[in-house]
Fold these 4 entries.
Entry 1:
Amino acid sequence: MPELNAITVADDAAVAVDSVCKVYKRDRQRLVVLDGIHLSVAEGEFLALMGPSGSGKTTLLNLIAGIDRPTSGSVVVAGTDVTALSEAALAKWRSRSVGFIFQFYNLIPVLTAVENVELPLMLTSLTKKERRERALTALRIVGLADRGRHYPKQLSGGQEQRVAIARAIVTDPRIVVADEPTGDLDARSAEEILDLMQTLNQEFHKTIVMVTHDPRAARRAHSQKHLEKGVLLKSEP
Amino acid sequence: MRFLPFIFKHLRKNWIRSGSTACAIAVCIFLFCTLQTFVASLKGFLGQGTTRLITRHNVSLLFRLPNAYEAQIAAVPGVRRVAAANYFGGMRDLTKPDDAFTNFAIEADSFLPMYPEFILAEPERRAFLGDQHGCIIGRALAETFHWKVGDALQLESDISAYRTARPLDFVVSGIYRTDQIRYPGTNESVLFFHYKYFDEATGKKVGVATFRVEIADPRQTGIISHAIDNLFENSDSQTHTETEAQYRASLGMLGWSLIVLLNGIALAVMFTILLVTANTMSMAVRERHTEIAVLKTLGFPNRLVLSLVLGESVALGALGAIAGLLLGRFLINVLPNVPVIGDVVKGFPKMNVPPTIAVVGLGIGLSVGFTAGLFPALLAYRARITDLLRHV
């Protein structure tokens, strides 16, 4: 049975989603994608969001990452109510507070691995040398220090995803959100990526919210939440 | 500035598309600069001599006027100077028409003060006026035939009425230069020699093709023109007097309509290139939906994304404009040496891309880039991340 509106938003939570609804209007149709979601993710938690296609998990992830806005309700991430921010402020907030990992890596093909990782730092006041040093450090963390000069097309899928992870953490955000990060990878590469995400969570204390279809991936998380038809189901330990 | 490498990397990625778009803009700027240089040259040429009239035979230039008319024209109130000037059509070798260049027999004493656009060093002027066989040549002509002061040459006219028993002998007395800023379009490829020598060599029976008339007040052109023509209304050789600009325009190829036509062509080409570039930029942005979404997700503000797309388009425009300017400059210089076209260009006042036209050309290139990129950039600016990601 679905457990509706049952989660209390904790004050010290890294992510606090409260009474969030998301409705799309197409012509005269009203499509409810998220319906009264309450979700709290503690600092340092690794949460897996699961659910069938169309259940609204990516939409919820987008709201947490500040790349979409709810129709109603509030989303507080890293102490900031992202629903109250202007577009420009939201962009600035994203650049500092959240790292995003896509299913299809989405590296910029004309940039090398290190340039891709450096990209978020272009928005900071760091010098070119400082940016490069940080990007190389991030690549070292993901085990690709020696592939910095390679272009995305010269890397395997797993390596591309590692570069994408390096890009997500290079600004040292508190929250990392991942939308099916292993969805496009073979089993071995998927394991490596999940290992890496666990490392980020355990050693670098990143709060991670991951959307996944894969139960094996979800098992790596501290907790799992299930969405169905825009409603959060009862949580599993 | 820190995003310039990012912009150029994108241009390099699709180098065939970037290159062909830059080439299209280059052709546009090249055509613009070349046509406008030609138009500026033409305008300057047509607009010169506001205080000068030309009196010729009423029927056609093929008919000539009696020498005696000169004194009567000079006596008309408002007339300051009069000089006879006949197009000689002289060539070094009549069997080599490619060698043809413009040459005139002039009454130098009054002609040279009337035409300040032909600038001569004082010693050379004195040498020319003092030598009946002397001639002066333009700098471009001197370069073409490697002539220098003191060189002797012979010319024979291709106009049957001007044919003499033997070619006329000349000595280069001076090489005139021009001031293309004050007098744009002044021909640097003309040879001038003494009318008196020409008149005597042809047995003093040829007559005058044109009288160049300098007047004191440019507002009096109409009145003085009528006064001159009225003088000879009842004579065998009636005259037709007009301003120098009208005279040049009446030569056919130098009409203002040509200027309008050339400007029209330039505009049409620019508009076409604008559409092509706009289409290219739209395609470039459409292909990069995901990339724009990624940039926005990473925190790139909408304005920066707009600037990056616009920057790419403007950079393309700038590259094209610079290439077009260089191409235009190069071709205008080499055009006189191209078979067939060169023959036409040689007879025309020396052309050079003026700085103002080059600046306008560069501005057009940048504007084409900006305008073409504006719509795609605005689309990228407005697009929501989630909508862009949905295209993946």
Entry 2:
Amino acid sequence: MFIHDHMTPSPVTVTPEQTVAEAIDILQRYNIRHLPVVDEQGVLQGILSDRDLRSARPSTVAQSKERGTVEEKVNKTPVSVLMTRDCLFLVPHATLDDALLLFQSRKIGALPVVNEEEKVVGVFTTADLMNAYRDLFGLGAKGSVLVSIEDNQDPQALSKLVRIMEEKQVQFTRLVRAEGTDKRRAMIYLRINTYNVRSVHKALEADGFVVHVPQKTP
Amino acid sequence: MENEPAITLITDPAFCRHDTGGGDHPEAPERMQVITDRLMQGHLAGRIRTFAPRPATRAQLLTFHTEGWLFRFEEAVLSGRTYIDHPDNQVGYESFDIATLSAGAGLVGVDRIERQPGTVVFCQTRPPGHHAEPNQPYGFCFFNNCVIAARYWQQEYSRRRVCVFDFDAHHGNGIQTAFEQEADTAYISIHEHPSFSYPGTGWAEDKGVGPGKGTILNLPLPPGAGAEQVLRLFPKIRNFLDTIRPDALIVGAGFDAHRQDDMSGLAFTVDLYRRLGNFVTELARDYTQGRVLSILEGGYFLEKLGVCVEAYLSGLVETDE
């Protein structure tokens, strides 16, 4: 659940004096979209996104004469001019929830991770968050299948499910109860490791659970 | 009729000796018996010639599997273990030897096809293979029969470009593992969508990695899908093969997508297996000069497994045209 387990450690950084041209080159070379800006001690100064860089460059539809001049000027500009100062950051023991809430409320795609000395030790992006939740939830884990079960609001539902799995000797790795909303029914998700998925469905149905699978064609 | 193509069946009574513990394990020895009964009593009986497999050599198994897995598998069965890594993978004392023989069926098939191009070959084997990974069994599979046959075809006969077409209800994760980083080999799989089915792999987005980019074609189907949805995939498969240009085709022929087979939520009919047989023969004619080898994978509903296999074989030898 902690950021230090899911961040990209020792990320590529730039210093405030480096130019826009250098920063663009780094983003392209490493195929990344965010660059923390640090001083010589590695202390966070700001963050630079590919969007900051793109919006600083002249439009591709601008007049060709002006365009060359402006572009040259921009390329030589130090990144300190374009970077976002006083940017948000995470600490290594922040949680995935902290990151999720920040990403959603501030509509940002990446956060630098800094230690107690404010030195950058990592970067955490929305892609890292997706990978982290993917691992937590077991999506795509080889040899596993997710079973979606209607939550019947029985307080004992989870323990009953565990008992059925134990009786059937079916290994499982995730048991998640998700509350319903206006748009979504309350569900229980069970990630099982067995070839014989239908026999699990049958066992659950025999105990009164409703398993969700897409409607069969007639 | 004299000109009717014969069917070469490669099988061995020994396949029944891979003991999966009785009880209700679906990958049961009876699977072999119901197929044999149907083929020998049905309308194809007079056209079937049966040949014995030979065990794959250690070197042939190592074209996909690791030395570590071979030792671990052999030791597990000899020490009396009843399953390996997961209770799905039931084994008995003879399972290592029988799996080796199962992996060798495809090799005999390749030899026969190369000796006489156009030979229709079906390997009636167990244990199945397409889930087996280099160092691990998965989903009743211990050695990856299709991959081992593909490697043999490449090495012994210089058919570099081998494509596996797998219509088992489950994605053949082991075959994808073997091929996804290679330019020469390709894998096409029709299977129940990984969100609803074992082994949770086979996403349409997986298309191959690095030099293997574009060599994987995963065609997941929603639960309940049958003939209509499958027939719609045929042009996609042809388009894919237009770019792959295979030298040889191996079919992972699983029959667990039948509507009454509980091991998947798919709803294939017996007649769809006949049409799949037609399609495979057309592909072999159009792309591989008749070089096609079919190897049994899954299929667990004993009342229908025999007729499904028979329908597929009928389709292989009796094209619609």
Entry 3:
Amino acid sequence: MVMSLMRSMVGVVLLAAVLALSGCGYNDLQGLDEDSKAAWSEVINQYQRRADLIPNLVNTVKGYAAHEKETLESVVQARAKATSVQVTPELLKDEAAFKKFQEAQQGLSSALGRLLALAENYPNLKADQGFRDLQSQLEGTENRITVARKRYIDKVAEFNKMVRYFPTNLTAKFLLHLDEKANFTVADEKAVAKPPEVKF
Amino acid sequence: MRLMGRAGWGLLIGWLWLTGVASLPAAALDVPPLSGRIMDQAHALPLAVAERLSADLAAHEAKTSNQVAVLIIPSLEGEPLFDFSHRVATTWKLGRKGTDNGVLLLIAIKDRKIRLEVGYGLEGVLTDARSAQIIRNEIVPRFRAGDVPAGVTAGVQAILRTIEGTYRAPERPAATPSSSDAFANAVFAVILGVVVGLLFSRAHRVLGPVVGGGLSFLAAPWVIPAVIAGAVSLVLVGLLGMLGPSSGSRRRGDGSAFDGTWFSTQQGGWGGGGFSGGGGDFGGGGASGNW
């Protein structure tokens, strides 16, 4: 009995050794590459969802505060700008495109924040059922964006580490031709930590 | 599964015992260990209400597999509402893995804040708008009137009504555990035996290993795994028991590993297997409100 236990322990140790030696990271790199692409798609997906909510929101606000043209216009424009910048998972290596995307989305965030702040001055708008529902959907979407971004940041950090660490960097460079992926910056992260204020 | 729950408790108690409850660092607001469907850390609910709600939620889960839990805390201590509620929901992993059908209702009494955190799989029915309506129409008016138990009850009932019928509990799988299940059970039997054995070995040198080994023997499936598990636990407890606590420098727990100041409905504790999340994930759906 003790013998068989010993033997199985030796087996476990051997298996662990083999696993440790096969650390070229080919599968891990491929897996993380795919995971971070999926995480990015989720980020895009949530930003798109936010953009989809905006026409409805703008129309509802117009019904109560049509004369607030400037704020309404700026939201429409920011939305148009944000939806025109698309970053597909393949383009993630492109720091410049990534930065442009971030800026466009941030522009939309602040325009939206102003629009929602404006609602405070219109009690009828605030009490409108449609507006309330849109508000909660928007709030939920902001939260989803936060979660999606956080998951993307974590995945890309993992991926980038493997791309830089030895020896997996060799696999990444010579075998898979993978580069580091762009990630959200800290300054940007701070701005996102404060989502547009939504009051009920 | 039941065994895993029991072993989980064993681990938890063992861990609390080893670290000493009071010496835990209080960085961000800690996610309380999940021990029941109604976790009332703010003493906002009378026992009868908590038990009835807990029974309702258990019945709902048995029927639909949806896992709904309520957490009432005294204060967020400055942490953003969404950050905390999402952390709790993803730590507890409410809902089944794959269907992600969990819901968390979080209430922070001092902050007067409410958050409904909805798992991926229920976002379609318990939409953000619907969540906000439940908070606004069911919970907030009662809270404003000062009746927290009624607000929580109405909120929970509205949630259950909304998500009723989206999922059905899966048929119980046939009771023939595969060999990997048997192995997992044996491993858990050993962990259980070691943890409990170590607890006992504080009382008595010999009693500990015997109890640990015996427990592992009883908990493991079938004869051969049971003998192996028992023997492993016996040896481990014997060795660890000699090394560890007798050195005297370690902080001594006060017997009960549980913080006695808050109530949570435990479905039977050790015997009945507590409540634990099924592996569901949360993507930020739901709504927030305040009163």
Entry 4:
Amino acid sequence: MTFAVVVFPGSNSDHDAHYAVEHVLGQPARFVWHKETSLGSADVVILPGGFSHGDYLRTGAIARFSPIMASVRAFADAGGPVLGICNGFQILLECGMLPGAMLRNRDVRFHCGFLGVRVERTDTPFTNRCRVGQVLRLPIAHGEGNYYAPPDALGALEAGGQVIFRYVDDRGEATEAANPNGSVHGIAGISNAKKNIVGLMPHPERACESCLGGADGLIVLESVVHALHERGTLQRV
Amino acid sequence: MKARVFVTLKPSVFDPQGQTIAEALHSLGYGDVGDVRQGKYFELDLKVTSTGAAQKLAEDVANRVLANPVIESFRVEVA
């Protein structure tokens, strides 16, 4: 089982993801430069965090045109699991693989630190080892994580069970005070309708070892390994 | 030909930067300034000769790249 970690100019969480997959999860990981046109024999694709192309126009706005993105889309269309973390989530929004858009954090500040993230759905390849309602302690690090979707799209997300993660307080409640950036409905992560594409602002790959402040994020990576074993057939594009 | 593209957040979308600027202006004593909405402004130098072609090209660029239609709208002026 091979994880492809796509590297854009300005990615900064690519090595974190690669390290977590290879050295903590124990699965092979491979960097794929954004100018490549093939993912090779990848079974899982990770779009990592960072500031692709400097995020100068909008977050993820230029990265969506990178040559590799056609292969990422084809991989996802074939049912392959794709995880977009932070800037990777923003790229998935910009290219329309996930609905909605990102706004600046409501207080216009960059937020960095651990917080509570509640798992809302376990029917995705990245949360199937979690319990519904389980609260993960995960770090965030972003200035534009204020998720927005127009009312009709938001209604469809909620009705379709596509809200996968929500920011919560110590009691597991999705309060306004627990919401670090103003995201609508406290949304921290969503999926597409088929549930094989998941994007989230928190960084599970940075919370895979207790010596780094917490290991709650590992379950996201363990989930996708489990999902592919369950399926019995490994997706290859 | 030159085209000017104005990109603004849709009225229904909250604008954290605009609100921060409005609060700053109020604290500077500009009580007569109400709401502030921040946007982006682009000047495009286009290698086309007709107004129609310039308008079409600028709209294509704005629609595909400069603006995100989920949250933003744009206006093009050709001169």
